[in-house]
Amino acid sequence: MPSSRPLRADARRNREALLRAAREALLAADDAHVEVIARRAGVAIGTLYRHFETRGALVAEVYRQDVAELCAAPARLLADHAPDEALRTFLLLIVEHAAVGKGMGEALESVLATESPVFDDARNEMARALDELLAAGAAAGLVRGDVDGRIVLRALGGICGLRAAGWKDDAVRIAAILYDGLRYGAPSPRDS
To answer: Domains along the chain?
Structure first.
């Protein structure tokens, strides 16, 4: 179990290198072994295990990091775009996130088989990020105000969970339909 003390600079670099190497290795092959990950990170296997007790803990942290990056996007998107455009872009980022998750399929399934809260936490964080975008869009009168992030995430989750060929193209099209539906029913400028 990692301690709550801040990591020394070299330990922090090793941890970051391990996470980068693990992400690359897992995207290349679901069965990436810890030895391969440690070698790619330029550290000994013992260093990997000092940071992550199990391969599953490493996979879960890679996934958590991806979710954290995704969920940091709304603030940046809202700063750079109108709320409806920020929402549309974020829906596409969710599809892309699902594609990364599929690249780590078996590894993530092994985490799912444990008591790890990683997926529940991820869904909650993504729903909160969507709530932020939906609230901004509703406040601007650009999207309907009667839908929350959890519902939008469930709508996208169905298609993103498929493993069929062409799922990503379908998910992008469904995200566009969902986006159009979120704008339908928004107060028109003349209603304000």
So the answer is: 1-53 (1.10.10), 63-186 (1.10.357.10)
